[in-house]
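Run log // design_07
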């Protein structure tokens, strides 16, 4: 299966920024829809952002629109999540996910592969 490894998480103050990255092990990465999800303690995993294989179609959760940006570099098998104006409620483990089928979707069950996650903590 595809291995996904997230990086870039950490501790920041409210209003700060972080840039998450996800590296995929497979050369077929460019054909996958990629997504970011997050899960806080006691909460269910929720959709954050997704991007099509070509990068020309994106989708964002309402809670992060205008603050987060998803992008991908297919030549490097990498997807990024730029997070600006962070809020304490953004605190969660952030997961990178890959979907083999080429449609941008928002539900976790529709993704095929998952990374181990990277912790993002936003202090007030």
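design_07 sequence
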């Amino acid at each position: 299966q595809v291995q996904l490894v997230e990086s870039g998480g950490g501790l920041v103050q409210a209003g700060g920024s972080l840039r998450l990255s996800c590296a995929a092990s497979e050369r077929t990465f460019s054909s996958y829809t990629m997504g970011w999800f997050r899960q806080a303690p006691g909460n269910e995993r929720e959709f954050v952002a997704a991007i099509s294989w070509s990068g020309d179609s994106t989708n964002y959760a309402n809670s992060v629109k205008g603050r987060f940006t998803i992008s991908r570099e297919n030549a490097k098998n990498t997807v990024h999540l730029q997070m600006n104006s962070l809020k304490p409620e953004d605190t969660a483990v952030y997961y990178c996910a890959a979907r083999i089928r080429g449609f941008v979707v928002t539900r976790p069950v529709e993704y095929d592969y998952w990374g181990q996650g990277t912790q993002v903590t936003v202090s007030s």
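Residues 36 and 96 are 5 Å apart (CA to CA).
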